[in-house]
Design a protein that fits this description.
Structural class: alpha/beta
Radius of gyration: 21 Å
Distance between the termini: 40 Å
Number of strands: 12
Shape: globular
Order of helices and strands: HEEHEHEEHEHHEHHHEHEEEEH
Helix content: 25-40%
Largest sheet: 9 strands, mixed
Number of domains: 1
Strand content: 5-15%
Length: 431
Amino acid sequence: MSADQTRPGPCGCPEGVRAAAVSRRSLLTAAGALGALATVPGLSGPDFATSLAFAGTRYAGDTLVVLSLRGGCDGLSMVVPVGDPSYRAARPTIAVPASRTLQLDAMFGLHPAMAPLKAIWDSGHLAAVHAVGQRNPTRSHFSAMEQMENAAPGSHLRTGWLDRMIGAGGSSEPFSSVSVGSSNAPASTIGPNPELSMRSLAEFKLNAVRKAGDEKRWSTLLGALYADAPPVLAAPMRATVRALSATSGMATSTYRPAHGAAYPSSGVGNALRDVARLVKAGLGLRAATIDVGDWDMHAGLGRSDKGWMFDRLTDLSQALAAFWTDLGPLQGRVSLVTLSEFGRRVAENASGGLDHGLGNVSLVMGGGIRGGQVYGRWPGLGASDLVGGDLAGVTDYRTVLAELLEKRTGMSTRDVFPGLDAGRLGLARAR
């Protein structure tokens, strides 16, 4: 099963299946510095989504990569609270044994399937933030995803936080914004800054191009066609042509990951490989979000050594480790964070799975990250500590994003995350 599908299982979640259909945008979406650009008809196939945004070659901040684990990933299986006695009692058949985890500290251990990431943790470039959540939590896939990508609770804003980030970039040299995947762009990009979409680097081309040399002829024709068009139409076309020109070499060449990196042949592996290529190309990539689905595990989650969760975490971890290795000396220019719309219940259900919950975990990786530790206040898993049977989300997920933007890109986040308090975790170094 591909990484962008939601597997319902024998006791599947109908809403999760519908949410997967809405959010199947391949595995990569990005937001740009000054502005992502509108999709120009005919530039890509019927299914596209991964948005990649650029700020121009003079952009000096980190590229922010956001991995959205769609479907509600169980953070208690990823970064396991083995030191909390209530954890194993709540999961008699699916708990990860303490002896199987990769010890992080006295309280937490990493799921054994995530072994490819342990060296990055030990080197101080990977951290975790546990018990993250939203200000107004919900167990609905649709509502939780909408609220997370809007990231402006209590306000009247209807734009997405990545779109607001684009507007706050302030760069005088916008390059372009590209998306790869399906036709449904994420809600985080909703707003006045449109986007340009492509299926993948290899397939990013004008549909009308049939043979070598056609690109220049069609670019000239489009230029003439839009010569007297208003800026709202002409600007996206011109930026699209520039993007095609800049990426044409990558689209036609064979890419060999550096430093022995080996990406898994999966959606998330392919997406991270394309992001690495774009970072290396020096085009000013500012932000990318990657959808990684298939986490809605209501039944048959599996054991610590095999099964659904083991397989998904293996794929994710191998892809992340390959991405990190491939970046090499550019590791210091990238910050990556994982998010999921909500966590899962603390207690397992009768089907060996987990129903929708609240609090979760975020992984944060990058050259500017103070890694090797778990951040955030741990509220505990005792009966009196839970919120309706769920881990409490005591750290606002926006706090993590805000610190990355402020410390690693130098951006003010007042308008990106309105109403967010000034407290930060100290997980990122200032550039």
